[in-house]
Fold this protein.
Amino acid sequence: MILAPSILSADFSQLAHDLEKVVSAGAQWIHIDVMDGHFVPNITIGPIVVKHIRRTTSAYLDCHLMISEPDRYIDAFAEAGADGITIHAEACTHLHRTLSRIRELGLKSGVSLNPSTPVSAIEYVLEVTDLVLLMSVNPGFGGQSFINAVIPKVDEVRKLISQRDILLQIDGGVGTDNLGMLLSKGIDVIVAGSSIFNSMDPESTIKEMFAIAAANES
Ligand code: DX5
Ligand code: ZN
């Protein structure tokens, strides 16, 4: 399991401290939620913050762009030090082109689907995709409940990806209660925000998550 804590639920005034805490507990990736107040009804951060995060950690920076016209900002996020950029299929007119551009910049290309978007939206872009992100909440806010209707989509995407070298990621409402079920369905990358940062002890929550993953593998 690759664990990608979402900084959306971190303390933004103590970001470096919060990042260090989750990375030292074993998280390999940091999930950065970028929102523009247009594609989603919330505004968060941009490339400047990513640039500063890059200076504080060597963890993989997984940038989830919930923005309209992502093509306008991909180069800026790459320059800021992102390792992977995930864009939304719903936000791209030329999805194949956008994913190709992310790869051209030397980054891992990710494509995300909102809960209501069918899996067929990514059928013809797999050759330029390194990661598929299934949203299990309607994007925009942390702390929402997992939408169970997304569970059959996990099987569907797993089947579509087949033997290809593409990671499957899930984002929204994931915690120790549903982690085992998701891993057993073949999810590779887990995003978790509130279940980690709002817990009494984020480090022990992360350790518990890795214990669940180890039990799932055995
Ligand atoms: C939602 C974001 C998620 C969010 C997850 O729009 O893409 O990454 O931070 O938060 P939790 O884990 O609290 O649902
Ligand atoms: Zn996200």
